[in-house]
Amino acid sequence: MERLQKVLAHDGVASRRQSEKLIMSGRVKVNGTVVTELGTKVGVHDKILVDGVPVTTEAPVYVMLYKPRAVISTANDEKGRKTVVDLIEDIPQRIYPVGRLDYDTAGLLLLTNDGELANRLTHPKYEVEKTYVARVTGTPTNDAMRQLRQGMTVDGEVYAPAKTKLLSSDPKKRSSIVQLIIHEGKNHQVKKMLEAVGYPVEKLKREKYGNLTLKGLNAGEARLLKPEEVKELKQATGLM
Question: Does domain 2-55 have CATH number 3.40.50.880?
Fold first, then answer.
């Protein structure tokens, strides 16, 4: 038996706090009865409705995908473009991407039906690091790298300090390879930070998420996370 708000959060209905608000406002029914008490516990055979819509409890599943470029980081796309979920085979559960990668960005993307873990992984409070490698135009100066490490404000959006490293530079092609490690996941963050210091991104890839890497995967391939990998993610976000 689990507390009702924990079950709602786990199944991706809402965050734990938002699920509590749903319960207290009388929008949740268990076995046909409106439940407003936060201490209520439910089991796998209980029927839960939120605003009249059934909540389906599924076995948790955790998938790592090497997202290729030109793929949308959503479960569905109204324009009919290929999505990351289209690349996942033999997974009967409904899974959703944790955060997103831009259409033209490749790299490591997590997908799960564990709503509570997904909410925590995308919250900057838990500071789960994401490692990006970018090819940029030009060669970033020491001053530019220092600005990235100090954090910045771009178009009114505040970005926390990044860890940076210049991996290589090719003067003939007027481009460089730069590594950025951030713990936020704001829209186009890496691109905006690098462009703000004068070095626009030509190509971008996310190589690590926490301790997870793309080792053993080719673009478009996916695998289930190992139990110890799931444990590490939960420990990093305070769930264990």
Answer: no
